[in-house]
Amino acid sequence: MNERRKQRLTYIDWMRGLACLLMFQTHCYDSWLSDAARSTKFFSWSQLGGTLPAPLFLFLAGISFALATDKLRQRGVAANEIARSTLRRGAEIFGLGLLFRVQEYLLGQPSAPWTDLLRVDVLNMIGLSMMLMALVCRLAAGSGMDAAAASGGGNPGSRAVTILAAAAAALLVALVTPPLWTTWRPRWLPWFLESYINGVHIFREPQPWLFPLFPWSAFTFAGLAVGFVLLTDWARRREAAAAALAGVGGVTMAALGWWLDAQPRQVYAVYDFWHTSPNFFLIRIGLLMGILFASYAWCRWGAGQWGFSPVIQLGQTSLLVYWVHIEFVYGRFSILPKRAMSIPAATLGLLGICLAMLLLSIARTRLKGRGAEVWGWLRLPARAG
Question: What is the DSSP-derived secondary structure letter of residue 116?
Fold first, then answer.
């Protein structure tokens, strides 16, 4: 990847870093604030901001998947090999999600129930969504298509088919989510499998704080479609116009979602706007596309890249800081007492978490690949002998 391309895509890292910051503040205030502080407007606004990180991470996972897939296509890698590679990467992320649950279970002893091992978390959903996107991209590439025909540069039609397939998948997931949470619930499945459909876990009803395929995978498919749009020849030549068009499209989608919600008649037997509504999904996708344009503008014309950017740095190591900060906010090693702090004290703790995660991110970036270097250096005497 050349320098111009790296610079062009830094706004994706900036968006991911923004998601990290929103995640930190949501988790810190939720874990540490006392009952009295939790009854304030401040806490309500904090939790409202907390509705953005998960959609952002999933949406950006879709965009990143499009970037990685297109890069392989440009290299002339066969469609089947691309599918295997991306399926394998999705399985790795899913495995990390399971490992994260094991860690949380062990550190949560003796009080953590064994059912926590099977809880559907955001890492599980990113991994599963990546595997589903790999299948959609392979089907869109066409059965038996050779590398030249499947390459993004050699066959723009293949990319267009992928865009349509991803958008259709996102719409389908959003439309079937309400009945899968209510009238079409697959109650015949074991709870730990049904939970991947609607987040029921061990409870009688689906839980909105979990991350089942419906509706959350729709955000990754929407990101996949947007990512491939940004990789079209037209968007590459007119990237500012493409980003602005994404912003305008986002406003249009949000307005459409609000208009549909205001209609007197709804098509679903049970309508839950905040958790399963396709109208709310449209509004959130519109908001994400608006954030995409704002991030692009900030990184190109604003202060987003004036020297070192802490937000971009966090975005480049988002998985690491997500994994580590949880234990120091919610876990056994929480740096402040839980449910006991005032807003100023919790804010100081939040600043400490942000600084610690930034330093961890910088260390990770600087040490990346050093393990192989050290191993090679240790082996030098043996080779010399």
Answer: G
Query: Do 317 and 365 meet the contact criterion of CB atoms below 8 Å apart?
Result: yes
Give, to the nearest 10 degrees, the angle between helix 278-301 and helix 10-32.
120
Q: How many CA atoms lie within 13 A of 308 on its CB side?
A: 5
The three-state secondary structure class of 362 is: helix
Angle at which helices 318-329 and 343-367 pack, to 10 degrees?
140
Residue partners of 243: CB distance under 8 A and separation at least 6: 11, 292, 293, 296, 297
pLDDT at 266: 83
pTM, two decimal places: 0.91
Q: Which of 120, 97, 87 is CA-nearest to residue 214?
A: 120
The residues that bridge with 341 in the sheet, in sequence order, are 33
The mean pLDDT of 251-274, rounded to a whole number, is 93
* pLDDT over 90, % of the chain: 78
Burial 67-104 (b: 16+ CB within 10 A, else e): bbbbebbeeebbbeebbeebbebbeebbebbeebbeeb
Which CB contacts under 8 angstroms, 24+ apart, belong to 67-70?
A: 67/9, 67/12, 67/227, 67/231, 69/137, 70/152, 70/159, 70/227, 70/228, 70/231
286-to-15, 202, 211, 248, 272 alpha-carbon distances in Å: 15, 33, 20, 9, 19
For residue 374, is pLDDT > 60? Answer: no
**Separation of alpha carbons 286 and 307, rounded Å:** 30
Task: Considering only CA atoms, give the Rg of the chain.
Answer: 22
Residue 210 contacts residue 201 (beta carbons within 8 Å): yes
Structure tokens at 296: 């692009």
Residue 291: partners with Cβ closer than 8 Å, 6 or more residues away: 15, 18, 52, 56
Residues of the chain above pLDDT 70, percent: 90
Q: For the chain, how many residues are written? A: 385
Give the SS3 label for residue 291: helix
Are residues 361 and 321 in contact, defined by beta-carbon separation less than 8 angstroms? Answer: yes
What is the 8-class DSSP label of residue 271?
Answer: -
How many other C-beta atoms can be found within 10 angstroms of the C-beta atom of residue 298? 18
